[in-house]
Request: fold
Amino acid sequence: MSFRTLLLLTLAVAARAAEPGNAAASHATAHVPPLNPSLPTIFIAGDSTAAHGRGAIQQGWGVPFADYFDPAKVNVANRAHGGRSSRTYLTGGDWGHLLAEVKPGDVVLIQFGQNDGGAINDEPPPPLRARGSLHGLGDETREIDNVLTKKHEIVHTFGWYLREMIDETKSKGASPVVLGLTVRDRWKDGRIERGPGRYSAWSYDVAKAAHVPFVDVTDTVADEYEAMGQEKTKALYQQDFVHFNAIGADLHAAAVVAGLKGLRPNLVAKYLSPKGEAVVADRSAYLRLPFPQNPALPSLFLAGDSTVRNGTGEGGGGQWGWGHFLPEHFDQAKINVVNRAVGGTGIQTFRALGYWHRLLSLVKPGDFVMIQFGHNDNPPRGPLPGTGNETGERMNPRTKEQQLLHTWGWYLKQDIADVRARGATPLVCSLIPRKIWKNDRIVRNKDTFAGWAERVAADEHVPFLDLNERIAERYDALGEAKVNALFADPHTHTSAEGARLNANVVVEALRALVDNPLTADLLPSNTRSAAPANP
Reply:
């Protein structure tokens, strides 16, 4: 059952449950049952968007979340507390109470940010709120005399509080999972907010640095809302623009389950109920695909295969994509570099598997999208050859069903049109060459993918970066022995040194453009950013 089908069924069931007198409506206010000490437990640490609410009109996702699991196999303990931030969840004692229950083998879901942007220490008149955390992920602190608790307090950053929860969960032998924020009903130009602020991106960064899973709740739900439209989405927010009703709660709960099922390893596979089994796993969850660090800045997005971003972008097997090292060449105070490439994909499968849509949902006017495909586009999984408008049918090797296919160039033209429709600028790259030698020269792909990319770029008047030729020239000059050290496998995936060389060539190709749209964002050629590379 697809996520969209599940959503439609949820809307119908939840609408009936919300009718006066329907016994199902009482589920929203049911008490949390005592934990079975012989079973593992999935804990939820969060705010009012996850906590028990007021029933059909306002409900947290943690309530219907329990329905996705078999109570004979696992406890689901919703310990979310309305009004809490990452800071006050710790200082108010909620975290201590939760942690006291955690045992080895448990899972702790951590989701904060909705209340972290509030006042750090409000001044009268009421209502008084002293719950905000310091912005960012660092170790900065501020000392205050808390106007509410009347106690002296050292306030830390949002990232510091998340790290405390993660570290203490690990110390109990349990598995922490960080979640992106729930979605607020705020729209602009037909698109819903994917915020608020930078808290989902900061949550991602903390999870990545701590080597723990991250589930992208924000974009999963936002994509569904945009497909539903603004009016239907508004019907899910009966109380205000932050808190959804029972239907919205179940939609968010399903998104969390989809993300958990998509992790590797899957932490919840053994505990699912039939409802949970029906949810389709989010196949991108384990990849930890990054987000723009600062949504206020323009972004350069990368779309491609494993030669741009390999696996989870952490150098598994010594293999690195050139996109990992590209941020070193940009002034990250001016632009985000966001590497959304996915290994094993081609120009058509990147789109068919949903990765292109996810990338495009993050693109805003003024952004840039750099596209490089070709390594995984040969039959049987690739599109038709060429750049024309021919079509044909072929069996999908994954689904075993017949599918209509277009040419390689046709898909690239669709990508270009999609980027422009977002008010952004597309850039086309030819694929980097493999380490295949013939007559003491690296084999080029001018007759196929590299040539097709150049042809489409010329026809569509898009900046073109001929990485295939430029990198091949570098390899030719270095010679076979030195080039061997640039690869982590026989002929396709580069080592860190090889990926860094390729990133240098990408920047050289950018600088060589007659009209380089990224000139102002590049660092001087003799300077590199001190900021860590985005995977």
Q: What stands out?
A: The chain has 17 helices and 18 strands. The longest strand covers residues 299-304. The two ends are 32 Å apart (CA to CA).
